[in-house]
Design a protein that fits this description.
The chain is 39% helix and 15% strand. The protein is an alpha/beta fold. It has one domain: TIM Barrel, CATH 3.20.20. α4 links the parallel β6 and β7. α1 packs across α2 and α3 packs across α4. The longest helix is centred in the middle third of the chain and has 15 residues. The model has no long low-confidence stretch (mean pLDDT 94).
Length: 288
């Protein structure tokens, strides 16, 4: 399968064209995104299969593991294909309890960027998202100091493109007033529709929107309407949820995660499910 046959086609992030169906590498680390995977060879196989399927957008973070996911990506795929964009995040670290404490002071951000460069084996990071908020979601407050630090690293040639993650609409606008961004990565799915207005505004600007937890998070989406549409189409609810996201707006890029080659293939195939206007109307009611 090539990128031309992947569901949804492609989207341009800055000067880079990526498949709208990507892959999120978070689940390659151990339980609760800590430590090494139970199946090291299997993790490498998933990454290689993603590229073999034609996926050109892989999402990661130095905090996954920590360091584990980046090292797996490097082992599996380096030297990287010219068409592959590896996006990472900075702004949070890990503690011994498995928490995600913020790390957005300038020193921490500079260290995180250099750590990402080292573990991924790169001289320049394709895309760095500044992670804001906390585990509960976006939180109000200025991102200026943190984002300006990343802009400075971009000027030094260490970062190619910038984005924000777990951000409010006001923080997105504040970032854009400082420097161009190519994407926003927030929680969004059929049942969590808080960013509908933001998605439409970004689409008009040519800025990508990358939903994390597109299938509801660690607990899959549960909805009678979703199950009914899936049964009618002889598909899984997860396939319908992914396909709906591709239909929702052309600027939405998917990064569903998995540690299974078979599940990766199912996600890619499921995202290409055809949804009728009646299906879409029924699904649109879930999060409203």
């Amino acid at each position: 399968m090539s990128s031309t046959t992947l569901p949804g086609g492609t989207w341009t992030l800055g000067d880079l064209s990526v498949t709208r169906v990507g892959y999120g590498a978070m689940q390659l680390a151990g339980p609760w995104v800590m430590g090494p995977p139970a199946d090291h060879a299997g993790a490498l196989a998933v990454l290689r299969e993603a590229v073999e399927l034609g996926i050109t957008h892989i999402d990661t973070a130095e905090a996954y593991g920590p360091r584990v996911t980046n090292q797996l990506i490097r082992e599996a795929l380096h030297p990287y294909p010219a068409s592959l964009l590896v996006a990472t995040k900075v702004g949070a670290t890990r503690d011994e309890q498995g928490g995600w404490p913020p790390a957005r002071d300038p020193q921490s951000l500079r260290r995180a960027v250099r750590d990402n460069l080292e573990t991924l084996g790169l001289d320049t990071l394709d895309l760095v998202n500044l992670r804001l908020g906390d585990a509960e979601g976006p939180q109000p407050g200025s991102l200026a100091e943190a984002f300006e630090t990343l802009v400075d690293l971009q000027r030094q040639g260490l970062i190619r493109h910038l984005g924000v993650s777990n951000a409010t609409a006001e923080q997105v606008a504040e970032a854009q007033a400082i420097a161009p961004i190519v994407c926003v990565q927030n929680r969004y799915n059929l049942a969590h529709r808080h960013d509908d207005e933001l998605i439409d505004a970004l689409a008009a600007q040519g800025v990508a929107y990358v939903p994390f937890f597109p299938l509801g998070g660690f607990s899959p989406l549960q909805s009678e309407a979703l199950s009914a549409v899936a049964a009618r189409l002889h598909a899984t609810p997860m396939s319908v949820a992914l396909a709906w996201l591709l239909h929702r707006s052309p600027n939405i890029l998917l990064i569903p995660g998995t540690s299974s080659v078979a599940h990766l293939r199912e996600n890619v195939a499921g995202a290409g499910l055809a949804l009728s206007p009646d299906d879409l109307a029924e699904l649109d009611k879930i999060g409203r």
